[in-house]
């Protein structure tokens, strides 16, 4: 996209985008300030001593107005072609590139989610959320002046992923904000917010008419988008020149990332099927009758945590990772790193059976004699893979009863045997991904069970 | 409580919003059509198509001009080849094969039509040859009557040769018909044998006596022998038919080779014509 452009030409191109971008952010904050002022939600955050005047109260509205002015200045600077000064420091970008990798990324995003959940009462405050929101946009704007970052983020088919990150951040905040507020209201013995506004309305025109208008407006938006950022049509397929990296459509990139840790039939067939089956099973597994029709976390903490972890961490972050951070040869590249097709990452993956037989017992894995019967061969395979088989069976068979007796005792009593077993097995399958990730990072362990003879690896 | 007609939103405002979105949608659609109509490479693509068409047409015209004389030459040479007498040796070989096969089948071969056609061709070819010689001797001072006479004589020779080829083809067709007949007979006998094998299986299943089974087995053996005979017959019939076809091909070889060379030129001209058509129409 920026290939063949000099730095000057590149900055010119970026400034034509960043100028309006920062002005839009200035407008966004200006509107926020106006809304707070007009809606009577203006509150004084702190006071500043001003000579000859005395103490002047600084309200939230004034702060966002100042932020708006700050973005307006950035817009003027960027529009004036001085985008090179609006960049993140190079050593900061290098540090991010060198410090990031699949491990840091996965663990980091998980840790952020945990922090957001634990301190949700703080993070859902509109002022805090709005600050984070502004910082996200600022970070994106400052990063756009980096050529490698721009190459990835501004690619027309990656733009939706960036939008997805922002939209998800907004809607996750919205739901958490309302849930926290409802939890507080319920604790005070008040009805949830949704109950205050539960007047019945007519399907037509109050619902369907609005849906029709939204449909038309969104269709028009998609057309404008398609005109502004045409889908990149590539040259005709050529088996002698395959794309590197060869990526699935963005919504499947989570699955493609799973291929790093699982056998293709597991990552491509079994686990996706289980995801669908699991989603279908939710209404039959859910015994909690609370929290219907309104946002809440306290009344449904288990459902909330499982869903947010499964959706945000194991689906969305994997899509973002696959789209923006996986480059040629499916290597991990930092956000400001050049996608070098010749990047070499030394990695020797091992199988558990090899660890057991070769490393621990210093002997060759048992192999059936040539020409032996099918059952003999299967016997030898089971003997060779006994440790992995025992671990996997233990994981899926022994753990559920232990869970029923300990941490999930209450669940077991309320759900009954079959529902509990289905739920725990689905949960264990879900948990197997992070477990396999950790095993790969720590021990370079590829598969627990390796039976290539029957295309069965786990 | 009675139903109320009161709506949640102000309908007048909703209509205005709807009208605005519809307007935006219309603008988007028109913009889309305009963008598609004025697509980035359209001008160059159209210019390129015109260029391609012009080049193909030029090539076609150039080749048509180059080929014109050659095509006439080929046409004349083909006529000349078609007016030639058939080498006696080939006809004799053809007749030899037919006679041999007739004897094998215990029949007699009738060559009267072929012989009379060959004699007619001999005569017509001699006349055509003489007429051509006379025309060639006249040289540059071409006499229209000589030219016409030569052309008539050549036409007569061509007709006579075609008649001979038809006669030869009759024998080839007969050979093919006989071959197909034997193949059909073999198929029928194989079907009978399959039925007999099935019958034997059923008999064995039903616990039939050894005599009955032996009778069916003997029938199967009979069919097998017949199949072997017919297979051999088919091989002989095929050899005979391909032998005849090969001789007919040799007789017609000169004309076929000339027609092939002429066809290559015609194909090239047709290809260029199609290329011109593709680049001047909306055919994909």
Would you write up a description of this structure?
The complex is a heterodimer of chains A (458) and B (284). In chain A, the strands form 3 sheets. Chain A has a two-stranded antiparallel sheet with strand order 1-2. In chain A, strands 3-4 form a two-stranded parallel sheet. Chain A has helices spanning 7-38, 60-79, 90-99, 102-118, 120-123, 126-143, 147-153, 159-187, 193-196, 203-228, 253-258, 264-285, 301-325, 352-360, 374-384, 386-405, 409-415, 417-443; strands spanning 44-50, 54-59, 350-351, 445-447, 450-451, 456-457. Chain A has 458 residues and is mainly alpha-helical. Among the domains of chain A are: 1-86; 350-457, no CATH class. Chain B has 284 residues and is mainly alpha-helical. In chain B, 87% of the residues lie in helices and 0% in strands. Chain B is flat, with a radius of gyration of 38 Å. Classes of the chains: A mainly alpha (458), B mainly alpha (284).
Shape of chain B: flat
* H-E order of chain A: HEEHHHHHHHHHHHHEHHHHHEEE
**N→C terminal distance of chain B:** 66 Å
**Major sheet summary line of chain A:** 2 strands, antiparallel
Percent helix range of chain B: over 70%
**Contiguous helical run count of chain A:** 18
Extended strand count of chain A: 6
User: What's the quaternary structure here?
Assistant: heterodimer
Query: Over all CA atoms, what is the radius of gyration of chain A?
Result: 27 Å
pLDDT < 50 stretches of chain A: none
- Portion in strands of chain B: under 5%
Whole-number mean pLDDT of chain A: 91
The two chains with the largest interface, and their residue counts, are: A-B, 17 and 17 residues
Alpha-beta content class of chain A? mainly alpha
């Amino acid at each position: 996209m920026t290939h063949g452009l000099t730095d000057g030409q590149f900055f010119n191109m970026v400034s034509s985008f960043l100028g309006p971008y920062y002005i839009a952010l200035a407008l966004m904050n200006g509107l926020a300030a106006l809304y707070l002022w007009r809606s009577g939600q203006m509150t004084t955050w702190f006071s500043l001593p001003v000579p000859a005047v005395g103490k002047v109260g600084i309200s939230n509205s004034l702060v966002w107005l100042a932020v708006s002015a700050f973005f307006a200045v950035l817009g003027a600077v960027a529009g004036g072609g001085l985008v090179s000064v609006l960049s993140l420091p190079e050593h900061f970008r290098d540090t991010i590139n060198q410090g990031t990798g699949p491990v840091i990324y996965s663990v980091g995003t998980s840790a952020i989610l945990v922090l957001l959940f634990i301190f949700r009462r703080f993070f859902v405050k509109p002022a805090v959320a709005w600050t984070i929101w502004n910082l996200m946009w600022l970070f994106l704007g400052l990063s756009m002046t980096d050529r490698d970052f721009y190459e990835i983020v501004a690619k027309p088919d990656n733009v939706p992923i960036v939008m997805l990150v922002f939209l998800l951040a907004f809607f996750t905040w919205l739901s958490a904000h309302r849930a926290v507020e409802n939890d507080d209201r319920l604790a005070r013995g008040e009805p949830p917010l949704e109950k205050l506004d539960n007047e019945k309305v007519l399907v037509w025109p109050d619902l369907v008419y609005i849906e029709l208008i939204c449909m038309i407006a969104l269709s028009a938006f998609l057309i404008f988008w398609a005109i502004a950022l045409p889908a990149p049509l590539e040259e005709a397929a050529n088996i002698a020149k395959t794309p590197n990296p060869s990526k699935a459509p963005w919504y499947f990139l989570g699955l493609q990332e799973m291929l790093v840790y699982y056998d293709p039939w597991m990552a491509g067939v079994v686990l996706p099927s289980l995801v669908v089956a699991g989603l279908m099973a939710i209404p039959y597994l859910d015994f909690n009758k609370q929290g219907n029709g309104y946002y809440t976390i306290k009344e449904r903490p288990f459902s909330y945590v499982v869903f947010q972890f499964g959706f945000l961490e194991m689906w969305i972050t994997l899509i973002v990772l696959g789209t923006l951070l996986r480059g040629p040869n499916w290597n991990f590249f930092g956000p400001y790193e050049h996608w070098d097709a010749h990047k070499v990452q030394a990695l020797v993956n091992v199988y558990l059976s090899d660890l057991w037989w070769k490393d621990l017992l210093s002997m060759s894995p048992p192999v059936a004699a040539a020409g032996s019967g099918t059952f003999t061969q299967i016997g030898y395979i089971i003997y060779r893979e006994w440790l992995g088989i025992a671990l996997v069976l233990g994981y899926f068979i022994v753990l559920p009863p232990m869970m029923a007796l300990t941490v999930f005792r209450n669940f077991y009593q309320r759900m009954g045997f079959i529902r509990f077993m289905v739920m725990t097995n689905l949960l264990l399958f879900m948990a197997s991904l992070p477990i396999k990730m950790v095993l790969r990072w720590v021990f370079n362990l590829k598969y627990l069970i390796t039976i290539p003879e029957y295309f069965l690896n786990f | 409580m009675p139903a109320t007609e009161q709506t949640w939103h102000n309908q007048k405002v909703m209509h205005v919003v709807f009208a605005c979105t519809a307007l935006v949608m219309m603008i988007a659609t028109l913009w889309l059509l305009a963008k598609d109509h004025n697509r980035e490479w359209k001008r160059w693509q159209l210019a390129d198509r015109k260029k391609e068409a012009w080049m193909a047409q030029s090539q076609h015209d150039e080749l048509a001009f180059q080929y014109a004389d050659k095509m006439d030459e080929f046409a004349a040479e083909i006529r000349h080849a078609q007016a030639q007498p058939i080498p006696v040796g080939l006809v004799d070989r053809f007749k030899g094969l037919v006679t041999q096969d007739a004897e094998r089948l215990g029949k007699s071969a009738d060559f009267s039509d072929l012989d009379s056609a060959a004699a007619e061709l001999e005569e017509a070819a001699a006349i055509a040859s003489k007429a051509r010689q006379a025309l060639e001797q006249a040289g540059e001072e071409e006499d229209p009557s000589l030219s016409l006479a030569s052309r008539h004589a050549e036409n007569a020779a061509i007709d006579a040769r075609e008649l001979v080829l038809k006669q030869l083809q009759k024998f080839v067709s007969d050979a093919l018909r006989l071959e197909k007949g034997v193949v059909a007979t073999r198929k029928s006998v194989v079907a009978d044998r399959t039925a007999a094998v099935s019958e034997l299986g059923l008999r064995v299943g039903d616990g039939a006596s050894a005599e009955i089974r032996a009778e069916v087995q003997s029938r199967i053996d009979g069919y097998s022998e017949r199949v072997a005979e017919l297979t051999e017959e088919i091989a002989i019939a095929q050899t005979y038919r391909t032998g005849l076809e090969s001789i007919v091909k040799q007789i017609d070889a000169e004309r076929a080779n000339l027609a092939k060379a002429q066809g290559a030129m015609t194909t090239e001209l047709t290809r260029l014509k199609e290329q011109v058509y593709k680049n001047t129409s909306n055919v994909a």
